[in-house]
Amino acid sequence: MSEEKRELRTAEIQQILELLPHRYPFLLVDRVIDMDADKSAIGIKNVTFNEPHFTGHFPGQPIMPGVLIIEAMAQTAGVLCISANEDPSSGPRSVFFLTIDGAKFRKPVVPGDRLELHVTKLKSRGKLWKYMAVAMVDGEKVAEAEISAMISDRGEVAL
């Protein structure tokens, strides 16, 4: 029985900047590894104390806001589906959130953590995509959610 060899790709920060319209302070993915076509990927977010949200969330006990963890998951999924559907002739594309379902937060994410954002495609149809996303720190699940999104040409209002 032969095992089919998969080509896993990586997106470094420069490629992420080309794929996503997000910029500091809202670009929340430093690198994407193990991209398997449009099926799955792992985003990496190095959480550092000098990020602006830690000033007020919370003074003396910095915790990454859950909504930013969800956004980092979505950005990882965005890199995955845009890079898998890249068509240079169609111009740059954007991904817009449609739904967030079943979000659960299990453990705080703090400065110094390396947040791994595991996204797996559940289904896609046309411009619509649905992913299961799990955030991990040191092998422990810290958050999870199902997210769906719509891909569109950049500048086009999708909703």
Describe this structure in words.
The chain has 159 residues and is α+β, with helices and mostly antiparallel strands. The protein has one domain (9-153): Hotdog Thioesterase (Thiol Ester Dehydrase, Chain A), CATH 3.10.129.10. It is 16% helix and 41% strand. The chain is built from 2 helices and 7 strands. A 7-stranded antiparallel β-sheet has the order 1-2-3-5-6-7-4. A hairpin with a 2-residue loop joins strand 6 (128-137) and strand 7 (140-153). It is globular, with a radius of gyration of 16 Å. The chain starts with 8 loop residues before the first strand and ends in a 6-residue tail after the last strand. The model has no long low-confidence stretch (mean pLDDT 90).
Query: Counting H and I runs of at least 4 residues, what is the number of helices?
Result: 2
Shape: globular
Q: What's the CATH architecture?
A: Roll
In the predicted model, the low-confidence regions spanning at least 5 consecutive residues are none
Percent strand: 35-45%
At the first level of CATH, what is the class? Alpha Beta
**CATH-level-4 superfamily name:** Hotdog Thioesterase
Query: Would you give the CATH topology?
Result: Thiol Ester Dehydrase, Chain A
Counting helices, strands and paired strands, the structural category is alpha+beta
